[in-house]
Amino acid sequence: MVKLTIDNEVVEVAEGTTILAAARRAGIRIPTLCYLEDVQAIGACRVCMVEVEGARSLVASCVAPVSEGMVVHTNSKKARAARKMVVELILSDHTGDCQVCDRNDDCELQALASDLGIRDISYPGEKSKRIVDDSTPALVRDTAKCVLCRRCITVCADTQSVGGIFPQGRGFATVIGPAFAGDLDDIVCVQCGQCAAVCPVGAISERDHVQEVWGALDDPTKTVVVQTAPAIRAALGECFGLEPGTLVTGRMVTALRRLGFDAVFDTNFAADLTIMEEGHELLTRLKEALTGEGDVALPMFTSCSPGWIKYIEYFYPDMLDNLSTCKSPQQMFGAIAKTYYAQKIGKKPEDMIVVSIMPCTAKKYEAQRPEMRDSGVQDVDYVLTTRELGRMITEAGIDFVNLPDGKQDSPIGLGSGAADIFANTGGVMEAALRTAWEVVTGRELPFDNLHVTPVAGLDGIKEASATFTDCQPEWSFLEGVTAKVAVAHGLGNARELIEKIRAGEAAYHFIEIMTCPGGCIGGGGQPRMTTDAIRKKRIEAIYKEDEGKTLRKSHMNPEITQVYEEFLGAPLGELSHKLLHTKYTPRTKV
Amino acid sequence: MVDKTLCCSGTEEASEEELLCRLDEVIEEYKDKPGSLIPVLQLAQAIFGYLPESALKRVALGLDKSYSEVAGVVSFYAFFSTNPKGRQTIRVCMGTACYVRGGKQLLEALKDKLKIEVGESTPDRELSLEVARCFGACGLAPTMSIGEEVYKRVRPAKVGEIIDEYYKKHVSAKGEAV
Ligand code: SF4
Ligand code: SF4
Ligand code: SF4
Ligand code: FES
Ligand code: FES
């Protein structure tokens, strides 16, 4: 342990602790900008400077470690002046109008200027050239608001192992962005939005589709239905000041009804449908592999996460056969809504608008992929992130916190607990195993409370295995087979796992990959900032939602049984293949 | 250092394919060494005379780096150029004397006439445009040069004529300038 004094308080912390962390522990707040918990501490912006007695100059507290007997002043005249100067300099090269910026009220630069009592900008200098990049369906970049904190670089290169964003040029003309200060569409960006999730200002954000959705709701000739991804219910409350991890399923449904949607459904229904299709696909692949009947690719990868799809298309195009052919739940929902449901209510697909509420920016990209038009028109018309829905509810003047609970509509609005946990890393795996195990053995999955704990939680790569015994007659070829599964979240972890498999150091039958750290609950469209502590709270909330249901297995969902009986026939049937499965496109990585 | 007979013809006017082939040999040699990006880019520039997109993408693929990272390095160092050089270089003096006596306007006039920016070359690859420090002819500011020839007291309005003259003299077949 190391003892030091910060602002006359004696603090004792472990060796190697930074001054910033030590101060926080003592309840002393040092302002920061480039620093981001769980992401980076690089000492780039110098906003966190403090005075250390005996040191020649001020030190950046986010990187400087404590030492025995150190005397720190976080608020000396010198520290205050230096900090203020740094922020004033940033502001002098900042073009943006807070009133019309999507980060108004949620902006770290705005908060910093306010906290430091900055009232005018005393360095009226030259402004850098502004580049607005709206080349992708998912994201918009505006370099005039960039504070060069480099968080997006770290997340894109390290967490996601994409490396789409780097500093371009030098000196005053430096732009943080894609190659040669070009567009995201020209590089291998997978549109995951993790950069937008960590940006402290309005320099990278989701592409806003709120106006388009209002337009659809105002159009009397259209039937507008909405689906909400499992992860929304554990995070939307944060947009209205509720504690992270507050479940707001019922209030969310009521809010959507008040916004004017003709029917409020649930992506959870489609998640259950995904399990039916993907579970059977896995068992079929296993059968063909084990009986030597066919030439199938194993391990099979899940395909729910569109950022991951784009990633494997770019970086491992030779492994596309390993991807499940199942569309994501969002797209299965769109295809079913515009066929099965449209027929039920006597509408044509073109008279229907399907809106998705997603924790994800890549879903905006996915919705407009050319493959996703199996109803004859674009299956999902608009995708709003959790943040956009939050803004829409606010705009409508709805007092979200005090709303009564509502219930989703039928017949494509019921989801099992297995569908809820699609939101968490490890959840799709667990949901698939709950069904596949029961299909094969006729017994419940032998894990405590149905939770496959080895693949839950925030470790980057997780694995589990289970041996099939006493199989049902038609699955006897699985008797004694040990199924090995793995789970990775964050594309950097996905890459690590794939490299291990390619090097022959690991082998599995089934692998779940989610693009975002923590899974969808940590998606690029979720309320900012998502720290590990917040991820854990959202994950817990989702498990609670699952445990609170009597319906906890996809194949027990009566609406799923109904859609197969009335419309689809059987999993992997002809109509399933047309509406619920897809193909992928190999791409090059530069 | 690199065995040129491997797959390259080594003729004067090598095709892009041949140049890329030479680059592949360089990449092969460096790819497992740490810190190889800058040396490989320098060699690539030596091979192509500049760094075209095709070469940069080849480097990114070969060294398993992201293209944005490679681009970031290229755009950081002034000695890398992504624009081909012209056969001759126009240099406009930006020394103090020339600057205050119309060097900047002169440069603008040249950019206008040639329709290129500093660091670029004309589409026919005849002329590149650069800025330079004092030519030692401050008394006769503003100054510029094309190749070895220095032009003094150049009025921006005269720029068009100078370029047309140059083209008549050196690129007679084309006659008129860009
Ligand atoms: S980024 Fe922040 S400071 Fe800049 S305009 Fe937006 S809200 Fe205002
Ligand atoms: S969206 Fe994802 S892949 Fe694209 S630049 Fe941002 S972090 Fe990188
Ligand atoms: S775009 Fe945002 S995250 Fe990236 S450097 Fe600029 S301010 Fe930081
Ligand atoms: S927060 Fe410490 S240097 Fe930026
Ligand atoms: S400043 Fe231009 S020649 Fe000296």
Record the SSE blueprint.
The complex is a heterodimer of chains A (590) and B (178).
Chain A: E1 2-6, E2 9-13, H1 19-25, E3 49-52, E4 59-60, E5 71-73, H2 77-92, H3 108-115, E6 132-133, E7 139-142, H4 151-159, E8 166-168, E9 175-177, H5 194-198, E10 204-206, H6 210-217, E11 223-228, H7 249-259, E12 263-264, H8 267-290, E13 300-301, H9 306-315, H10 329-344, E14 352-358, H11 362-367, E15 382-385, H12 386-395, H13 417-420, H14 427-441, E16 461-467, E17 482-489, H15 491-502, E18 510-514, H16 532-547, H17 558-568, H18 574-580
Parallel strand pairs in A: 1-5, 11-12, 11-14, 13-18, 14-15, 17-18
Antiparallel strand pairs in A: 1-2, 3-4, 3-5, 6-7, 7-10, 8-9, 16-17
Chain B: H1 16-30, H2 37-48, H3 53-63, H4 67-76, E1 88-93, H5 96-114, E2 127-132, E3 144-146, E4 149-151, H6 159-170
Helix pairs in contact in B: 1-2, 1-3, 2-3, 3-4
Bound molecules: iron/sulfur cluster (3 copies) and FE2/S2 (inorganic) cluster (2 copies).
Structural class of chain A: alpha/beta
**Number of self-contained structural domains of chain A:** 4
Question: Based on DSSP secondary structure assignment, what is the total number of beta strands of chain A?
Answer: 18
| Radius of gyration of chain A, in angstroms, nearest whole number | 25 Å
- For the record, the CATH architecture of the largest domain in chain B stands as 3-Layer(aba) Sandwich
Helical percentage of chain A: 25-40%
